[in-house]
Amino acid sequence: MHFRFEHEFDIDPKTYWNIFFDDAYNVDLYKRLRMNDRKVLEQKDDGKVLRRVVKLTPADEVPAMFRSVIKDTGYTEHDTFYRDRSAMDVVIEPSMLKNKFDFRAIYSVIPVGDARCRRIFEGDCKVSVMVIGGQIEKFIVDNVRASYDTAATVTREWIAKRKA
Length: 164
Hints:
Elements: E1 2-9, H1 13-20, H2 23-32, E2 35-45, E3 49-58, E4 75-82, E5 87-94, E6 101-111, E7 117-127, H3 133-163
Antiparallel strand pairs: 1-7, 2-3, 3-4, 4-5, 5-6, 6-7
């Protein structure tokens, strides 16, 4: 299932990314996203490319119709951020169904005028489980969309704080 989410912000792309990688912002964001746990397992930055691996455990339960297949909602996010492109490759690896799940996206931030930017998160989610794979894909993409809407709200609040 292909997806694309866009949000605009009153800030330039470089400052957007500075907020995005700020530890305090991430604590606030993941609390608002209802994560039970968030651990940065690895982070390497050579000044041009930042690579990080983050283990996340959502608080939300799996819907009853998927519980026979999915018992653990935890996942690991593999990010590769390219400063020169203002874009990050994102690969999600679930705790379960690793060989039946493929989630890849590009998270980019582009200028759209003076001190404004557009965040675009676009990619594909594929769950290869007979009968309910498409339903699981829709559930995941709907949750990701809701998370990015929440993240947009949190980001706008942080931008407003910076400007105050």
